Predict the structure.
Amino acid sequence: MKWKKQGLIYVANGAFDWAQTHAMIPTPDIIKNDVLRIYVSFCDLNGIGRIGYVDVAANEPKRILSISDNPILDIGLPGTFDENGAVACSVFTMPDQRKYLYYVGFELGTKIRYRLFTGLATSIDGGETFQRIKKTPILDRSDSELYFRCGPFVMKDNGLFKLWYVAGSSWTEIDGKMMPIYTINYLESADGINWSDEGKVCIDIKNDDEHGFGRPYVIKENGFYRMFYSIRKSHKGYRLGYAESPDGITWTRKDDEIGIDVSENSWDSEMLCYSSIVKHNSNIYMFYNGNEFGKTGFGYAVLEAW
């Protein structure tokens, strides 16, 4: 495939105390025919993320229409799994127009650096505000997925809620720093809220240069599944990966066909990560982060050819 980069859209400008830096993990939602809402997590000066949004023109995503003044979902109560940050990863609209927002909560550790688990919040006002369905994760730790059950992407497909997510139970030392190890796994649910404790591995680590993956994003066309994800490299920044599947469960990695890479001397010159895909009319857009996990903001590319 071939993508044409269109440049940076937005990075936090420090206008709000809760949104001093970053614009992480762009998650698109078509809220009107001519408006795309991009949910992102902004960070305060302590590096704690809260979820807001940037609305852009659907036919010209570099044209910003509005930016949230306040978090649409704030951090959790002290001692909860999302007390140190919340990051949007997946959103869709139910038949009754409620929006389901799957997000990741950050919990700092003592003997390990952190733990990441998945929460769910809903909106009845079109995505202006969200409320947690409960204060605990819907994907909590389990024996087989001990530290990480995060990076969720959820699709309702053939009457089932289908979930692709990041899971792991171990760490490795890279250049003197402990780094997480995880795979992309798959689960199904009848209601999108209750999930089993162990998923099937879809995308596994394939060589010594990899140690994990970032948020998967899946689209389905004519019964065929395409997954876009981020690859955590051991000695350089994230790169984007791509895989295909006839059933959403068994995947063939085709990372060399992703058709987009880092730029020279730009906001995305060191890494590409956290891609998401949305189709609007005849265009297919990819939104993504660049350097420092979104510290330099998010931008987009347009698909020129599969």
In short: The chain has a mean pLDDT of 96.
